[in-house]
Amino acid sequence: MAGDGSDQRALQYEQTLMYGRYTQELGVYAKEEAARLRESGQRRSISERSRTLDLLEYDKGRCAKCRRSGYPYVLEAPAQDFISVCTVRCQKFLISRVGEDWIFLILLGLVMALVSWVVDFCIAICLQAQKWMYGGLDSNVFLQYLAWVTYPVVLITFSAGFTQILAPQAVGSGIPEMKTILRGVVLKEYLTFKTFVAKVIGLTCALGSGMPLGKEGPFVHIASLCAALLSKFMSLFGGIYENESRNIEMLAAACAVGVGCCFAAPIGGVLFSIEVTSTFFAVRNYWRGFFAATFSAFIFRVLAVWNRDEETITALFKTRFRLDFPFDLQELPAFAVIGIASGFGGALFVYLNRLIVQFIRKQKTINKFLMKKRLLYPALVTLLISTLTFPPGFGQFMAGKLTQKESLVTLLDNRTWAKQGIAEEFDYIGNSQAWKHPQVNVFVTLVLFIVMRFWMSALATTIPVPCGAFMPVFVIGAAFGRLVGESMAAWFPDGIHSDGSIYPIVPGGYAVVGAAALSGAVTHTVSTAVIVFELTGQISHILPVMIAVILANAVAQSLQPSLYDSIIRIKKLPYLPELGWGHHEKYNIRVEDIMVRDVRYITLNCCYRDLHNILMSIHLKTLALVESAESMILLGSIERAQLQSLLSQQLSRSRRMEYIRERAATEKKHLSVVSNNDSDDGRQRASQEVRFQISTEESTFSPTRPASQKPLKPALKRSSVVERPTELPTSPHDHSGIALKSLFCSSPDAEALEDDGDVEDDMTLREITEWEERQLDEQVNFSTCKIDPAPFQLVERTSLHKTHTIFSLLGLDHAYVTSIGRLIGVVSLKELRKAIEGSVTVKGVKVRPPLASFRDSGTSSSENEATELHKLWDRHRSVSLPGDQVTSESDEKSQ
Amino acid sequence: MAGDGSDQRALQYEQTLMYGRYTQELGVYAKEEAARLRESGQRRSISERSRTLDLLEYDKGRCAKCRRSGYPYVLEAPAQDFISVCTVRCQKFLISRVGEDWIFLILLGLVMALVSWVVDFCIAICLQAQKWMYGGLDSNVFLQYLAWVTYPVVLITFSAGFTQILAPQAVGSGIPEMKTILRGVVLKEYLTFKTFVAKVIGLTCALGSGMPLGKEGPFVHIASLCAALLSKFMSLFGGIYENESRNIEMLAAACAVGVGCCFAAPIGGVLFSIEVTSTFFAVRNYWRGFFAATFSAFIFRVLAVWNRDEETITALFKTRFRLDFPFDLQELPAFAVIGIASGFGGALFVYLNRLIVQFIRKQKTINKFLMKKRLLYPALVTLLISTLTFPPGFGQFMAGKLTQKESLVTLLDNRTWAKQGIAEEFDYIGNSQAWKHPQVNVFVTLVLFIVMRFWMSALATTIPVPCGAFMPVFVIGAAFGRLVGESMAAWFPDGIHSDGSIYPIVPGGYAVVGAAALSGAVTHTVSTAVIVFELTGQISHILPVMIAVILANAVAQSLQPSLYDSIIRIKKLPYLPELGWGHHEKYNIRVEDIMVRDVRYITLNCCYRDLHNILMSIHLKTLALVESAESMILLGSIERAQLQSLLSQQLSRSRRMEYIRERAATEKKHLSVVSNNDSDDGRQRASQEVRFQISTEESTFSPTRPASQKPLKPALKRSSVVERPTELPTSPHDHSGIALKSLFCSSPDAEALEDDGDVEDDMTLREITEWEERQLDEQVNFSTCKIDPAPFQLVERTSLHKTHTIFSLLGLDHAYVTSIGRLIGVVSLKELRKAIEGSVTVKGVKVRPPLASFRDSGTSSSENEATELHKLWDRHRSVSLPGDQVTSESDEKSQ
Fold first, then answer.
1. What Å distances lie between residue B786 and A26, A795, B641, B696, CA to CA?
2. A435-to-A319, A329, A398, A418, B415 alpha-carbon distances in Å
3. Which of A166, B158, B567, B823 could be disulfide-bonded to B634 (CB atoms 3.0-4.6 Å)?
4. Which tens digit of pLDDT belongs to each residue from B554-585?
């Protein structure tokens, strides 16, 4: 019985979360359990238990309801509870006065700065330990090698295992997921405490291993986790922390904090997080990001000062380029070359990264083996990379002994390496020493470093540990810039400037430009420029950096999606591709060209059988409700789950019991004429009429407006799982009927008969079937059903560009196409995605391979042909409306 | 007759542009005239004349139509035209290939850089001329004074007069207008060539006068003008330049270019323009701004290098602060003080500026006098300011002889003034000399400078010339920062740092912080921080600047709207206030609390009389179309103008003529039975049925889908004025009937009877009235009417916060509130604005004075009371649905 119920629920949620993968079963299950307990009168015990995080939100909703409806809760509860409620209210008042957004943001910034600092500190200790081990064993090369290799393998394996066990969601960067969440998709278990712990510890170990991994992406995720947990914590006191819009705003701010406290770059952090996570950015949210990120960066740097690492607050990777003449105008072509080359390099990196993932996924035998021994892959990759960087081995030719941070510091050094030559003194803190090899030119070292690091980073970021790719890419970019800079310095030993004083070329400036350009190309952002200024503390190279970043973006965006979009596709998260650089042909495609014309709908006067059939035949998340099949006037949309519960209610055992009772009463009536069946009659009547019930978004008062002519009353826009009306039977107690069983594809097993009253369930299976058939012919009573009364509507003529805008603005996943009230089609994210990715050529309609989705088609077609073809295409495709499962499969195939 | 027609049109447009003030009569009139000419067959002459800018867009629309519908235009035209069309098509192909966005952006950047440089150059010459005049007359103080005063008075007066005559729209900053335009409101004549010329020349003269005025705001406007004109120019070749969404995107980029090339600050420019003009920013538009602004800033600085002003590209106001230890941690409180004080100062500045405007507006006598002699006010203000800054007079105590630029350079100087004392040598290029007075302390000079400049700037920005307030405020902020810095330097002569080396305090750093904080407070932006980094070329003070800017914003935003929002209110542009810092109470207000319940609607089966009555009684821009008064199912919305034209068509003279003809025919029928009245019959039948006609957004092909059961066919979302179907009689040729006359409130004067056919208008006035009464009783035929089939719908439970988001996201000005298809209310920008500005207190509902609209109410109410009160309030107000005229009046009163 219970198994049956949970099956049903599982199916339901799989379809609720349109694109699968992440179900939120656990949380919801806990809430339902809580609801059941509460129903059975265990209110007091709940009031204690509800302080746990999972049930918190539910309890808040309930408390709010009680308070408004005349404190029945308080009146029922003893004095102790009353006092606690008073305390809570006082606290709430305090918080609502003081607890403005900025308190939250300061707390968030503070926590994140501490986390960032502690993580950095632990990483530094880990790296130092490795160095110490390696240094201590300098008598024996083999022992040295063992130490050098074992240490990272152990750390990475631990990190992978720990993450795998505690919270597999913590794997990877987190930015793609945050982008999806900020689009409005619920990936709830991404923001749990478990994930937080797994991410922080996993990240520390992963970075402590010395692998070429970054902390930026994970920090965005960690900050979001912090915000979500803090929000939950704060909602213990105040009410405003429950609002969904507010949570989204706070998550957006948290992303900024993540980047900001990672690099001590508040401005760059805000901009980067906007570029990476948002499609449309609410400017009113701007100050939140700045405020929190600044505070966080400030605390992060102050901790360093207090720790006596620094004398005062300065940049993380401070440079000391000359200010008067940072670069010559004639050097600009070299900067532009860096930009363009970085663009190609960035695209290659994204491609390589995806290629590795897909290669490992496709090789069935490898995959099978690796799936069994999940920790083998991380260990192998780590072994390979650390072997190659072993300083006495190949590592000597690629500055292998330097950590990522040390490499970056040396690369941004403001002195020239090449000019002094190899033989010359070269004594900058000893670290630059690593770049100098007795036999090999510094150029060779740099080239080797770039090439080796490039594929190593692409490989390392596929390890299933919490890690980002920003920092490795940043370092590679800096090395590339340095290479160009050193070449320029070798070519023009006295600088380019012709008249007057000599200004030698500064290769460090080139390194800055290269770092910004390559990381910009990989992430498709312009704000890396701002990040480098904040990281280096110098803005003198603003124009070269901007030019290089923009060129790199132009090249990279025309070749490949960004790294994060690439991961989104690999992970099959619900997404909407950007319109890209040259999207003017998108203005000419219209909704009517891409919409699905064969819309499935339910009518207001349909019977339960129609409902049953429609639920059997299709698997859409929501269904359109129209007035009648003739008028096709769109009234709203209903979620599938709602319809299922309607149906299960109609065929529920309790209703059958009632029928039996009624039948018994009728039989009795033959004996005594006086009997009260008013209530049943009333019930019957109600189910015949079309009547809508008030259901509220939050548990506020019910409006007391007089009923108007037609008994249609307000329903909510966004149904909340929390506020299920109590008479709605969705808990596993209500057993579905036989006909319903067929809907949920499970065989009709014998029901556990519970005697719950005066009558006995003495109906035979045939009688039950007959009864159900009769029930199915009744007209649907939508009164207990939540209807979204204003689903988003478009017009046929809306352009693809505008549709894209609206979808990304409002985070829709489908919209109905109407024509003067009449429903004529539906557009979902899927159609839109296809329309954006599949370009229209003159020859015909062609869906481009996903890898080339950002490439522009060589020819543009005349509108007429294109649209006609589109229509044909659509008609062909809409013959069988593909369900969501089909989508994900076809997606899988195309990748 | 013609006067009558234009009256009608004027009324129509006054109601179309909901908030009045700026009517687009001229442009539309020109187009209508062109349409009339074209109708009468003068195609060739048009094809030459249409190359003028005003008619260009119209002609493009027509050309596009011709091209698609089988080249009837080309076939009719001679060979020469054919060749020119071919050339145009070739050009179009070239442009559509090459003419991606980036070409446009490069052109825009280039043009703006040149404009900026030329304007700067001219301003420099003007200022130098003044200095030269003043210096040359050093023998006679009176002559010196005359020269010092006359020069700016003449320039400002010229600027004001020139702008007044050529294009009054060029007055002021332009940022408020751009904000409005980017919200989707059409202020077309803001983007004409005339305005461009007026703005550039007016600005040059105004700034050349040496008044405390800025060029930033005007440059945003100029860049937008450039973009609009360039767009028009480019649309000569390509088709994509006609798209509305694209134009908005380009305007947003242009705003970034404006700031970017003004300060050579690409990043700050982009961010500032986003903060100042957008509510929701499309991240896909981000690269456009960066690209264009970077290119523009680059060219702008390269011009300086080519002109031998600079050796290489560096910042505009380069500073030379030390990098190693820019500031001590213990100095942070001082920076915070600067931030908070700047916040108050910024709010005061906005308040003062508005106060001056309102004072001058309210003083009827002054106002009347000034209205007559429009140039007197500028002249008087200039006289006052220049008198006070006269260097040998009061100006000697406030560095009056320095220009704005020179002041800023000296204020940002990295040496300390106070430490050396007044007596010490003080010889920095001679300009810092101006701050030193033999008798007076440098602190006194600074304080005087700040105080005097403060009110002078607030006053000067009210002069009706093209001018901005950013730069004056920036300088005042720098002076304030310098003051604090010098005080700190005097207080801690050896710096604060306790251990080790001595790091003296850098007052220049304080000046940077002050400048960013004050300008941030006045404009409510955080990105001024980025602008100062780019302006000074140093980012070392990032944390102090960020902290001060955020604090300043926090204070200023809680006291006053931003300067631009303040101007928007003064100018009564349609706007939607921001939600501000602490807006959590907005989550609890719902649409049902603020909506107007008494919605006026028209039903699908109404007769013309209902239409007439409804148009007589209310003055809304759009009306809801519902299925019937019983069902209230919302089908769409119709513009008032459409209904008016429906009505005028029904009562038109041509229909009456037809009636007369018909009557005559019927009379004839008595004589001969054979007559063909089929067509009339068909017409009659058609007008009885409810039938919708296909009308297309752009003049594309008509879809050939088979007609479905109900003969409802697609109509367009946004009606375009250009594409009026030819059978729709809105040109002044169609004379309105008598009943219609009463609608347009003009007395029914005798119509100029034109004999247009075989019959004579022999009906008496009584007959006409009778005929019209009959006509009014007919059912409305909506076939020629453009219906917006998907007006935006909200649900009662939508929160104010969400409503605000949706309104600003989609640029709506009204939305219908529906409940499962049923129309139950309407919310317009007005209600929303009131709800945001008027706070809800426990005592009752109170609309706060506009000046305090951003202040938070001290107490928050319980939701129940508030909502009930809100309802009462709404019911009270909705008794008479106030028209738009009423709105603007009440706005006027409340200010």
1. 51, 13, 10, 9
2. 19, 29, 7, 11, 40
3. B823
4. 899 888 888 998 888 888 887 777 665 555 55
Collapse the DSSP code of B625 into the 3-class scheme (helix H, G, I; strand E, B; otherwise coil) and give the result.
strand
Rounded Cα–Cα distance for residues A751 and A734 (Å): 11
Residues of chain B in contact with residue A312, where contact means CB-CB under 8 angstroms, are 325-329, 497
Closest CA to B478 of B449, B448, B445, B513: B513
Q: Give the closest-approach CA distance of B612 to chain A in angstroms.
A: 23
Q: Is A639 helix (H, G, I), strand (E, B) or coil?
A: strand
Backbone angles phi, psi at B785, to 5 degrees: -105, 140
Please work out, in degrees rounded to the nearest 5, the angle formed at the alpha carbon of residue A482 by the alpha carbons of A476 and A488: 145
Q: Give buried/exposed letters for A702-722 (b at 16+ CB in 10 A, else e).
A: ebeeeeeebebbbbbbebbeb
Q: How far apart are CA A286 and CA A282, in angstroms?
A: 7
Taking CB atoms and an 8 Å limit, are B821 and A635 in contact across chains? yes
pLDDT in tens, A114-145: 999 999 999 999 998 888 888 888 788 888 88
pTM above 0.80, yes or no: no
The size of chain A, in residues, is 895
Give CA–CA dist B151/B576, Å, rounded. 42
> Residue A70's pLDDT is what?
35
Chain B residue nearest residue A717, CA to CA: B795
Contact B526 A290 (CB under 8 A): yes
Band (pLDDT 50/70/90 cuts) for residue B304 is confident
Are A797 and B312 within 8 A, CB to CB? no
Length of chain B in residues, anyone? 895
Instruction: List, in order, residues 6 or more apart from B410 with CB less than 8 Å away.
Output: B399, B402, B428, B431, B432, B434, B435
pLDDT digits (tens, 9 = 90+) for A151-201: 899 999 999 999 988 888 888 888 888 888 887 777 767 888 989 999 999
CA distance linking residue A182 with residue A576, whole number of Å: 12
Q: Outline where DSSP puts E strands in A469-578.
A: none
Q: Where are the alpha helices (DSSP H) in B777-816?
A: 800-810
| Selection from B298-302, B782-786, B794-798 with the highest mean pLDDT | B298-302
Residue B603's alpha-carbon distances to A818, B139, B646, B691, in angstroms, are 18, 84, 14, 14
Q: How many CB pairs under 8 A join A and B?
A: 317
Residue A537 has its nearest CB partner, among B539, B799, B864, at B539
d(CA A296, CA B70): 64
Place of tokens 């957006």: A252
CA distance between the termini of chain B = 40
- Chain A residues whose CB is inside 8 A of the B100 CB are 581-582, 584
Q: Report how far apart the first and last C-alpha atoms of chain A are (Å, whole number).
A: 40
Instruction: Show Cβ contacts of residue B417 under 8 Å, excluding neighbours closer than 6 positions.
Output: B426, B432, B435, B436, B442, B486, B507
Highest-scoring range by mean pLDDT, A442-451, A796-805, B738-747? A442-451
Q: In this structure, which amino acid lies at residue B590?
A: R
Q: CA-to-CA distance for B218 and B202, rounded, in angstroms? A: 10
CB contact under 8 A, A820 and B68: no
Query: Which pair of structure tokens corresponds to residue A52?
Result: 């746990």
**Minimal CA separation from B428 to chain A, in Å:** 17
Domains of chain B: 94-307 (1.10.3080.10), 329-375+384-419+430-575 (1.10.3080.10), 585-607+617-639+786-841 (3.10.580.10)
Of residues A301, A540, A716, nearest to B795 (C-beta): A716
* CA-to-CA separations, B711 to A125, A148, A817, B693, B725, in angstroms, rounded: 76, 79, 17, 9, 20
